């Protein structure tokens, strides 16, 4: 089925010279979605310049804490008890990422989880660029009803065997990425690559050593953010009116991958007098996301609450003319 969909027309002999020389298709399963959550399994499919599989690798990881939603990923505390710590697999993981573009479905999540694990190990992940397959499917205007991995897989006739198992999710994504990459090359499409900058949110001193049985959650108190945003000095004037102007004090939340690093977007919003919120509630004035139909908690809540949504480009334009707060 897959070969039928990947025709010669989508596998050009003249490959775009600007395309990367290789890719690392990655999936990580985690204890949750927060900043202090941990990786419990990881898989990497290494692909050559045209998306052909070179090899694959998989490992479980002892998260040094409760494994989280076992009903989703199936990895219990007992199953992870003898697994290596992230520091034990960091070198091998890095070897498989180095010199390649990291490819993932909702890539900003996988990248941030990986980068934080390396930060905890006092190392830097050897990743300079990432590519989100959600963004690529949008660039290609694939006729998908939503942007779930299973939907992308079905479009290319890829069969999922074990959903939420890192190795199978990475395999499925690699098989769906190959025809996507070839279609992009055939059309001379510019790939939606994003720079991966080193994290600045973690520590200026080494994290403490934690034993396997230590149950450390977020480093046992040995870490601190590099900086804390100042509180917004303006009252919340309410929701953003579609077609209108932003007003100082409005609560703005961000969700999903962005072309500008998230931290820089948040800095610009703060400098404009907006309140940057890490969560979304009924008080949120605006959600900024390039994928409003995604299943992220913020996007779901925005739909439930009727919160106005704009994409990154529109938000950038709104930032150029923010209305001053009253008084």
TrEMBL record:
Ranges of residues in domain Exonuclease: 22-186
Keyword Repeat: no
PANTHER family, alphabetized: DNA POLYMERASE III SUBUNIT EPSILON, PROTEIN NEN2
Keyword Coiled coil: no
Classification lineage: Bacteria, Bacillati, Actinomycetota, Actinomycetes, Kitasatosporales
Annotated SUPFAM superfamilies: BRCT domain, Ribonuclease H-like
Molecular function terms, GO-annotated: exonuclease activity
Residues covered by the BRCT domain: 244-322
Name assigned to this protein: DEDDh family exonuclease
Superkingdom of origin: Bacteria
Keywords: Exonuclease, Hydrolase, Nuclease
């Amino acid at each position: 089925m897959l070969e039928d969909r990947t025709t010669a027309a989508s596998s050009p002999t003249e490959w775009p010279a600007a395309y990367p020389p290789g890719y690392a298709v990655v999936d990580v399963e985690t204890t949750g979605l927060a900043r202090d959550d941990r990786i419990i399994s990881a898989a990497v499919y290494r692909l050559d310049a045209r998306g052909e599989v070179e090899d694959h690798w998989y490992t479980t990881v002892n998260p040094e804490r409760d494994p989280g939603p076992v009903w989703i990923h199936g990895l219990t505390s007992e199953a992870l008890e003898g697994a290596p710590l992230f520091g034990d697999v960091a070198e091998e993981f890095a070897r498989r990422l180095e010199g390649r573009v990291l490819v993932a479905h909702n890539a900003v999540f996988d990248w941030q989880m990986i980068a934080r694990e390396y930060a905890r190990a006092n190392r830097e992940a050897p990743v300079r660029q990432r590519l989100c397959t959600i963004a690529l499917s949008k660039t290609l205007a694939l006729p998908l009803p939503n942007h779930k991995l299973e939907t992308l897989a079905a479009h290319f006739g890829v069969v999922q065997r074990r959903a939420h198992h890192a190795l199978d999710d990475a395999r499925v994504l690699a098989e769906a990425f190959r025809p996507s990459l070839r279609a992009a090359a055939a059309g001379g499409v510019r790939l939606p690559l994003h720079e991966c900058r080193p994290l600045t949110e973690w520590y200026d001193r080494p994290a403490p050593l934690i034993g396997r049985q230590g149950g450390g959650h977020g480093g046992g108190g040995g870490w601190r953010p590099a900086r804390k945003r100042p509180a917004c000095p303006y009252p919340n004037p309410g929701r953003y009116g579609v077609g209108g102007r932003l007003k100082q004090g409005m609560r703005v939340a961000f969700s999903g991958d962005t072309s500008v690093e998230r931290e820089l977007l948040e800095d610009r919003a703060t400098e404009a007098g907006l309140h940057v919120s890490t969560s979304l509630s009924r008080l949120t004035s605006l959600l900024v996301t390039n994928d409003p139909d995604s299943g992220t908690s913020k996007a779901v809540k925005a739909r439930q609450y009727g919160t106005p949504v704009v994409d990154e480009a529109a938000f950038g334009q709104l930032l150029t003319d923010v209305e001053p707060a009253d008084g």
